[in-house]
Amino acid sequence: MVSFADRHIGTTASSQRQMLDALGVESSLEDWSPVEALMRQAVPSSIFTDASADSVIPRAASETEALAELRALAARNTVNRPMIGLGYYGTITPQVIQRNVLENPSWYTAYTPYQPEISQGRLEALINFQTMVAELTGLTTANASMLDESTAVVEGMLLARRASKKASNVFAVDADAFPQTKALLETRAEAVGIELVSVDFAAGEELPAELFGVFVQYPGASGRVWDPSAVIDAAHVAGGLAVVAADLLALTLIASPGSLGADVAVGTTQRFGVPLGFGGPHAGYMAVRAGLERQLPGRLVGVSVDADGKPAYRLSLQTREQHIRREKATSNICTAQVLLAVMASMYAVYHGPDGLKAIAGEVAAKTVMLRDWLADAGADLVHDAFFDTLRVRVPARAAEIVARAHDSGILLHAVDADTVGLSVDETTTVADLHQVAQVFGGQRERAFGFYGSGSRGALPGDLLRQDEYLTHPVFHAHRSETAMMRYLKGLADRDYALDRGMIPLGSCTMKLNAATEMASITWPEFAGIHPFAPASDVGGYLDMITQLEAWLAEVTGYDAVSLQPNAGSQGELAGLLAIRGYHLANGDTQRTVCLIPSSAHGTNAASAVLAGMKVVVVACDELGNVDLDDLRAKIATNADELSALMITYPSTHGVYEQDVVQITDAVHEAGGQVYVDGANLNALLGYARFGDLGGDVSHLNLHKTFAIPHGGGGPGVGPVAAKAHLAPHLPSHPLAQRAEHAGGFVFEGGAVSAAPYGSAGILPISWSYVRMMGADGLRHATAAAVLSANYIAARLAEHYPVLYAGEGGRVAHECILDLRPLKEATGITVDDVAKRLIDYGFHAPTMSFPVAGTLMVEPTESEDIGEIERFIEAMIMIKAEADAVAAGRWPADDNPLVHAPHTAVSLIAGEWEHAYTREDAAYPVPALVAGKYWPPVRRIDQAYGDRNLVCACPPIEAFA
């Protein structure tokens, strides 16, 4: 029977033998397979780990067995009616969106839209998202999503600090903010020297005398709806900025933050059709007033023009690394929650402004109905102005009331011993309201009608919304399911994802996301769980999390794992905060210097800055390795202040550094800690462990090594793993169901994500991957990935220099092709090659990272020999085309490379006047005739889009 590993790994035994023969690899010992011999050539013997027979990871399960085990875990979760609120609400995902987006590999296997010509579908969806957020919040510009609401609040605080002209370090925080947001603010503020001051704004408490900003929760966590415009005005008078966290559904009925004077609006779009998922993934949002556009963290989609002057979408303001500037960093957010932002935007497209307002009106009316029934029962309501959330005083009975509600299948929230909180949402039925009223002593029998969605509920009349929103035709044109289905299909057809072909991006590990791995994420027992549900309701989740943490701890050589970070950048930050906490606990307050190699990804330095560290850059040698002499010199210079070294292993250059143990030893001898970035773990899994090579802490990328799909630029999960001495400083959470984790440690660090277990709703994907691969399968996947990378490097070496290799001449899981000699000889640039690959039916490899003018290629273990050979053929043909330009066959300014990519329209419109033929443009290899991917736009003018910043839906006339 064929195993799951055989299905996952694209190259067969015979094709691997063919590739090994091309590399000249033979096994010298009977107990080594040839691919094992390759790994022994590549991985330094000082860190090489032989296969273990006593792994805690069970033997590989079949797909059927794994699903059965997941069904058993899911059965241990109880799906009760979630009325806890606190930023997480029941919502109805339209089936047309669930099936055509969430469950559609055309959407979930796409990569970040750095190649915009083949990303027009998801870029349009993100423009819809930005327009939706900007118009609902009443502000001018929104970004393409944030990680979650609480993280967005932190980013709003940091934005206010850098945009304010006040020198103050004081930030005033609404006393009525969500508890998880307060916790995250405390974690992040302390590390960068910000003083938080809690103020009960709604009660009229005065602002601090000096501040750089204020944060208002609107409506408040208590449900209270009030007018914060006076607080916002006072903040402006004091020279600060106002950040408002607003509920988008409520904003269909109440005045927008922009109309109240806010500078920044943040929040979550979860209740726009995105399942609860035990806390995520969900798309946070951020919008800003005019003048703050260039301060926005993360990604921003804008409108530019292509080579024909037609409108085209792309990422604006170089948002890939917009704020990731080493020691000058202002944010470490380099990603988004694209798949979830697409879902939320399509929820708005499907319902339109009238539909959203009707949903909000029904929620408001039901909340009033519940208020009335509770009042009839003699309950004491805390507030009389609200949208969807009530607070009820029940002296000394809160726990009893919450327990009684739980027994009847409804989740309420004990605010304290004397107060119960509850929230109504789209899924709440009148029967649910009646059940809640009975819990508080209401009538058992009741005759009632429902007075519909037109009511303003209990909202203050002077705060009712007056301005329009979602006026663009896209929010009015797709009401029928037929129209919606076709719209989603049309957008998907404009994109290139893994369902079309290989995405050979170095450092990104675009591997297969198997259907069996994805199957369980929409099961109600996983998708319908509130992140603050009681531990008794989430036994299956907690068991799965414990198992996954233990498996990840074993394969990395660490003692404890936290799954809370919901992106790699947040895992980096959590790991560095753990190091910071460790030094502070030891009284080493002076240890603040973080050494980072010059080749490192920008988020490394950005995370260090946000962890309160000072970045010192270490040089790399001509082979791409850390310069040991420079490292030792930097250690000596900063010995007393050394906090940490951050390295990526294998290196950012795709090489297994031979001296890694010497490097980590030198840092430890000076009293520092070693952070090993886990971005390249796919080259190591099963053959070496971070903890064994000297690592003290690492983050992992479940969206790379462990099969969670990239989703067009998110979701991600970035767990942090650590040795025992750092484990107590890993993230905790005030609302976590338990403090114990896989290593038996109680984590006492601060929260780094809004939910206790981050994006728990997609953890079944990685659980399934490990469970079905088993320890041996994971090891085989690593070897297959390394083999494919070395095969590509060897086959292309005579056409493109391979920039770096290890001492044995081997690369790791990726190789860097140097295109600078090609440009010098032919004038053809790395951009030209990347765009020409589109004509050949490929997504380009990573461009100009970590070295400008290069392509970093990572085939992953999932690609078969046919696809690998197709890519090699394309790269060889493109080199020949460049040589033809140099030889004068085609002019330097009129050849297939500089005009790539070619759309179908560009080939048939008007007379063909180019020096090359239509066939050269469209079908450079015969295989393309049968299944050509046509890009929807020609090459996009990046500079035009930055000079003419438009980040919302353009009018229909623009496409005429």
By CATH, the topology of the domain at 113-348 is Aspartate Aminotransferase, domain 2
Q: How much of the sequence is in beta strands?
A: 5-15%
Indicate the radius of gyration in whole angstroms.
28 Å
Q: What is the 3D shape? A: globular
Query: Class by helix and strand content?
Result: alpha/beta
Please report the distance between the alpha carbons of the first and last residues. Answer: 56 Å
Shape-level CATH architecture of the domain at 113-348: 3-Layer(aba) Sandwich
What fraction, in percent, of the residue positions are helical? Answer: 25-40%
Number of helices: 28
Name the poorly predicted regions. none
Largest sheet strand order? 2-8-7-6-5-3-4
CATH class of the domain at 113-348: Alpha Beta
Mean pLDDT: 94
> What is the assigned CATH homologous superfamily of the domain at 113-348?
Type I PLP-dependent aspartate aminotransferase-like (Major domain)
EC number: 1.4.4.2
Protein name: Glycine dehydrogenase (decarboxylating)
InterPro entries: GcvP, GDC-P_C, GDC-P_N, GDC_P, PyrdxlP-dep_Trfase, PyrdxlP-dep_Trfase_major, PyrdxlP-dep_Trfase_small
Catalytic activity: N(6)-[(R)-lipoyl]-L-lysyl-[glycine-cleavage complex H protein] + glycine + H(+) = N(6)-[(R)-S(8)-aminomethyldihydrolipoyl]-L-lysyl-[glycine-cleavage complex H protein] + CO2
Q: How would you sum up this structure, described in words?
A:
The chain has 960 residues and is α/β, with parallel strands linked by helices. The strands form six sheets. Strands 2-8-7-6-5-3-4 form a seven-stranded mixed sheet, with helices on both faces. A seven-stranded mixed sheet has the order 16-22-21-20-19-17-18, sandwiched between helices. Helix 2 packs parallel to helix 22, helix 4 (63-75) crosses helix 17 and helix 18 crosses helix 19. The longest helix has 39 residues, at 338-376. The termini are far apart.
